[in-house]
Amino acid sequence: MSRTRSRTRAGARSRSRYATDSGLTTRMVGTMFLIGLLYVVLVGVLLAVLRGAWPIILIFVGGMFIAQFWFSDRIAAFSMGAREVTPEEAPELHGAIDRICALADMPKPRVAIARSDVPNAFATGRSEKTSLVCATTGLLRRLEPSELEGVLAHEMSHVAHRDVAVMTIASFLGVLAGIITRVALWGGLSRNSRANDPVGIAIMLIPLVSAVVYALSFLLTRLLSRYRELSADRAAALLTGRPSALASALTKVTGQMARIPTEDLRKAEPYNAFYFVPAFSSKESLSRLLSSHPTLEKRLDQLARISAELARP
């Protein structure tokens, strides 16, 4: 009887008070299914063309997947300069996260600060146990306490909805296809192949198929990423009950990006998929079109609707 109760309590604790999002769940499942199909096609082409090297292919692909799943979050956090801090070192940041954890009824993640003037925040981790939430010094310096709490609630919703882990797995195929394309081109496979050689023609398919797979997986992850950011905004606004604070933070952070030196923004751009607000070093329409985040107007419109809903009696 006691074991049953303990399991029930553990199961209850595993679900946070963040609002569930069936649309996000459906999109994550659909993205993983399509990514899996592309993965099978890519591996099938490699095995068909390089028949004698199938053990090496399976070891390479399997090793890449394990490395991407288990270490990508640590590598990303390290690359973005995240350093874990204690409550004594960052009492305001820890206090805000403690309040969100109490509201959401979820375990506290590791807390980190990145020394960067780019105002931003991000979350990494495969699960709640391995999660890390980080804020930059530029963000902490610019936001009011209520605004900071809204941003952190947004980031922790990614952990609660487990979309961080899904994005990590989904991005694996794009990384793998990109590596295969570069290796095939740099290795001169297509250059050294004869046009009338059946084996050479088959080998020429490797960079072509890899490039197509990379493009499709890129588009799939971008579509999922845009929706998950809207979902995180919605969940954070409903949890804190202050969508206006999150809207204020969005407006302030986006406006401050224009004042950040271009060199700093370029360093941050590779990690835009992790950030609360993307860092752009230019105003090119193409970069905005392929952004991992929805437009500021779309995010603010959603928060305005939520604020109106919460104001109704």
UniProtKB/TrEMBL annotation:
Sites where the protein binds Zn(2+): 154, 158, 229
Signal sequence, start to end: none
CDD domains assigned to the protein according to its UniProt record, in alphabetical order: M48B_HtpX_like
One Gene Ontology biological process: proteolysis
Main location: membrane
One Pfam family linked to the record: Peptidase_M48
Membrane topology qualifier: Multi-pass membrane protein
HAMAP family: Pept_M48_protease_HtpX (MF_00188)
Protein name: Protease HtpX homolog
